[in-house]
Every structure is written in structure tokens, then in C-alpha cells.
Amino acid sequence: MKRLQFTETISAPAYVVYKTMLGLENKDTYNKWVSAFDPTSTFEGTWEKGGKMYFVGTDENGKRRGMVSEIVENHAPSFVSIRHYGMLDGETEITTGEQVEKWIGCMENYSFKEEKNVTTLIVEIDVIEEYADYFTATYPEALGKLKIMSEGYLP
Predict the structure, then answer these.
(1) Continuous segment of H or E residues that includes residue 142
(2) Is the per-residue pLDDT at 154 higher than 90?
(3) Which of 32, 100, 107, 114 has a CB 3.0–4.6 Å from the CB of 14, allowing a cystine?
(4) Which residues pair with 68 in a beta bridge?
(5) pTM for the full predicted model
């Protein structure tokens, strides 16, 4: 497992970045920034601490697939921590076995640090080695989309 870190400076208050990232007022804002990873990406579940979350998309046949996760911490608007513990294959949760063992326990942490209405978003993610290059290339694009949406807010 490898830990990657990404930083994006966004000219918007932390709460705006936070709610845009999580899709709290409009789920489409979440879907738009994560579309860099997969155009069908979305979430199903709750952002509350302890909440179960599916991070899903659909394959070329329309079958649901994705990660089964838990919201470990959520301190609005300063920090969100997610732990992955399984995979979703259609309607089936897979939480044991070779297919998921590499991902179990991987974390995603998002820290929002605001100063004078400018937010520094720090993302730390655990990935398995074979996906490190993909995330290194794709995360900056995704955060760029989040930046554009967050900076377009109306005060």
C-alpha cells in the first residue's frame, strides 16, 4: 500500500469547498468532480460519522460496482476520513477474499484549512501500488474540477 498526497488551493471558504466536494446541497457537485475517475461515479449512503457509504459507478453493461466504505470522521467543514472495507459487485457486498484484501483498510482523508476565504484542501489516500500512477495522474484533474465549482459560488 502506498500513501499519496495532493493539495489544491481554492479561493472559497472551507464550508463551500466541503459542501461542494460532498455534494451536500446538490449531489451533482460530487458527481462532477469525481467524473475525472469515472463518468458514472456517484455515492449512495450518508456522510455522517459511522455511516456506510457506497462509492459506485456502472460498468459497460450497466452493472453497479465500487467500494464499500465507512465514514470514520466528519468534522464539518475541516476534516473527512473514509475507510474502505469491501467492494460492491452488482448488489453483492464483498468484504473478504483475495479480490478485496488489498483494499481493506485503505483510507481517504480530506483536510480543509481556511485562511482569509482561501481554502487549502489536502487529500491523503492509500492506494495499492498498481493504481498509484492512475491516481497520481487523475487526482489533480478531479481537484481542478472541484476548484472551479467551489470558486463559482455566490457569497
Answers:
(1) helix 132-151
(2) no
(3) 114
(4) 54, 86
(5) 0.94
